[in-house]
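Case study 2.
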Amino acid sequence: MNKKELFENIKRKKSFLCVGLDTDINKIPPHLLKEEDPVFTFNRAVIDATADYCIAYKPNLAFYECRGTKGWASLEKTVAYIKSRYPDQFIIADAKRGDIGNTSAMYARTFFTGMDVDALTVAPYMGEDSVTPFLNHDGKWVILLVLTSNKGSADLQLTRDSEGERLFEKVLRLSQKWGNGENIMYVVGATQGRMLEDIRSAVPDHFLLVPGIGAQGGSLEEVCRYGMNSTCGLIVNSSRAILYADSTEEYARRAGREALAVRKEMERQLAVKGII
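Prediction:
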């Protein structure tokens, strides 16, 4: 999916919501545990309930890889289900890969050729040659970790060099030489607030993947105030607040209601900016 198609989806659905599929088998409704594949059954119902209100899904690989082959099978079925039933959805594999070049090339083949997802989160801190193998796949996106929401982000990302440039700013500057706004996005935590203003000044036209609203306490209004551009430029993720809104047999219905509530606020923000 290219940038124009992504923006058209945002306008059509009046939403820039990404539903994070951080599916923990220990948190899903107990009645699902009797299913052959409880995680996929849970994901399928949540996807069916939320697909009208979001433009993307983001399975977090850690929640699947921890279950070995069973988890990987759940992931593959989930991605295949989205692609077959909801082909307009942008699929992000949240894997945070990044290694020396030949290893990165194998990771890229895994997700872009084998699984055929649209985008992959990548850690850029091994430098250009660890990222460029992911950029060699036409029509696919690399989403670089730049400024995250965790407390420890200050340990490295906010440190300054002798000229006063912060490390996350250096990543933004250098990475624009590796790719462009048609194949690179950036992860920026919603709890970073006004820091989005600095990021927008550095990358005015790129899409930002913004996790951290909902359970992590990030403000959607603040994210839009400082991060939205003329083509929206935002994919805002919510995971736990939607996935685990209910632990009974009503879980999918409640997930849909939560997604709709976020979508309504996103519609308002898009209207304020004159995008819709």
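The chain has a mean pLDDT of 95.
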